[in-house]
Amino acid sequence: MTIRLLPEILVNRIAAGEVVERPAAAVKELVENAIDAGATRIDIVVRDGGKTLISITDDGCGMTPDELSLAVERHATSKLPGDDLLDIRSLGFRGEALPSIGAVSHLTITSRPRGADSAWSLTVNAGAKGTPQPAALAHGTRIEARDLFAAVPARLKFLKAPRTEYDHIADCVERLAMAHPGVAFTLSDGGGGSRSGLRLTAAQGELLDARLTRLGALMGRDFQENAIPVEAMREAVTLFGWIGLPTLHRPTARHQHLFVNGRPVRDKLMVGAVRAAYADFLPRDRHPLLALFLEIDPQEVDVNVHPAKAEVRFRDQGLVRGLIVGSLKRALADAGHRASTTVGLATLGALRPQGDGAESGSGAAFTPSPLPYGRGGGGSGWGGSSWGGNPPVTPGMAERVNAFQAPYPMPTQPPGLPPLQGRLSGFAPAARPPEYAPASANAPAPDSHPLGAARAQLHNTYIVAQTREGIVIVDQHAAHERLVYERMKSALLDGGVKRQALLIPELVELDEPSANRLLGRAAELAELGLLVEGFGPGCVLVREVPALLGQSDVKGLVADLAEELAELGDALSLKERLEAVCGTMACHGSVRAGRALGIEEMNALLRQMEATPHSGQCNHGRPTYVELKLADIERLFGRR
Where is the composition biased (Gly residues) (predicted)? Predict the structure, then answer.
């Protein structure tokens, strides 16, 4: 077999297959060129999902006739001043985009530099380059690629429907727009149809605020209202951006946007760091919403890993991972007990009257419509199936009235309840402040605390508190679970959780593999306050339990821990495994739903929530409380 050189036009088509695998890739390359050219406005028009037309017009620096001819040659670029491929300070640098697109389409480039008296145009038809010709255009550049892949019809077979290809293009443009809020963008399908809606003005103001404005326009108002700023620097590596509260999450990672030096990337290291930072707050099948921007010396990152420049490689991976994990955890801790506003909005949606009859004065009941958990775009941002059950559906009006206990202030000794001191002693220590005052002597005013003053308990499960601006409904079990969990983590950092010896050791029977897994982690469990030892095949003996848990179901706790360890395996680090086990223990040591609480106990729980980081959601990602503003409640009843 004779070795031969391939024709230049075939070489270009092979290169095009690496760089331009679909219309969205061509749009990405051309928009990056416009941004690198200093454009402040970029207008994009595509037809048939980019297959028949891609037109991109910018107001950048423009090109002279000689530069036009050189721009469509392979490996010709203005973005690599030296010969160091690790010193990349622009989005494009390979010099392959224009010749690759020209090899598989009918390409026309029209450009006019600032200050020039005329514009020039150049065509490339399926790899055949023409000569520059005079043209009409204001300063900047317009690039039109018609009949993409006309020269390689086999590639057309692998493209999806026009709507799908358009969605890929929109996703690509949106990511670039997030990274460059100072640039105005428009995207149209060219026909004035339903898909001609992306119109972004240049954001003004401080960079971080401008990014949030742009992110709100693209990711939705829910994200803008429930995002936490992140700003951190470590060893000349800067991280900034906005991350969503844990109670605002989605079933996929589609709404996680990561950027390195202004370049959208899909980096496994950064994705893993985000997951580790949110591990305490979300179920494993839920993902937070965020946009993070990493600025790093170009010498410390290799962007030449992937032909589409979608992946990067960091020289010091530990530094980058540590910066992301630490910064996100600090930002989430600073958010305190905040929960996303979408939780309250979803609740109000469930309380809307059914039909027009509700306004007729005939006593129409409220419809217990299910809350929109886990829906895309808006909604509450959590999914009922994530923790093995659907969220509680709001009862009818009559049920809610009958469920209310005595209004505030409650007597010190409500009928039918054990003495107050006995109730407090049964309350797990993690939620008891060091001092209690009688309700009559030191009852909090509704406007003296963020979570207000407890007024009643519904169904022995939900605490209703009055705040300055409305009401708060607290899930007592979910809230106390987070408090116990944070106490256990703090104790673990301080050298170990205090243990309480059982008067009579508890014998727990398991299957033999589960028992062996549990005993294999005996040393780690001892750090968490649980002392176990073997007692024959398939049996473990529990001698001591964490003091924080109070009186708990030891057999149920051990069985759940064995199952948790089987699921975790060795995939997580020791610290992550310990935190996961802490969460299971906290669940067993928390105040259970169905337990009656006095006003003092309810207010104690509220004050502890206000003083505990992350108390806006339990360990499984559910919200611990719902806040309803008075204005929204008044609208619900037609008062506004």
Answer: 374-384
